[in-house]
Amino acid sequence: MPKEESFVELFVEHAEKILCAAKALEDMMADGADMAQHFRLICTFEGEADAITRQTLQALHRSFITPFDRDQIHGLITTMDDTVDGIEEVAQRVDLYGVTEFTPDMRALATGITQCAQLLLDAIRLLNQLNRNAEGINRLCDAIGQQESAADKRQHEGLRTLFATEKDPVKLITRKEIYQRLEKVSDRFDDVANVIETIVIEQV
Fold this sequence. Notes:
Layout (H helix, E strand, L loop, with lengths): L6 H22 L6 H28 L7 H28 L6 H22 L4 H36 L3 H35 L1
Helix pairs in contact: 1-2, 1-3, 1-4, 2-3, 3-6, 4-5, 4-6, 5-6
């Protein structure tokens, strides 16, 4: 029989890159951070994740045997890649706009992204034994959904404070976009969790 590709191992490698990028984004927003260094790190992790995505899609193309539905494999790796792309997009805007000061709400959103990344990695690691770990995977996906809901509220509060206090129109526009992009990353984690939940439903 043709050799089965190690798709779950590739997913784990990708999820590890997402977590590294998330931690670098959180560190980027800390007081006294070396902004340029963290930006470079995030771009590096995003590039490494892209390479794993290409490797996964190539493996999918040549495989006859897959651990679950081919469309689900494609959907999972591409939504994961969208997530790390979103982290890089936040860092790009921070670098482009020269933002060096961050509100508590921005930092809380970044912390939530790191927490989502850890939850995702934990869930992906359980896919090797899907039947045994279905309940645990669903709990982790639910936790990602809760983080996404909390991010919605955090963004709302942050924007309300921003509009009430910021008088500089340029700062208002740029900070608003950073808030929106941070929240969008949480949405992308929720998208990944939805794909994983679908896999569990169809395979267990």
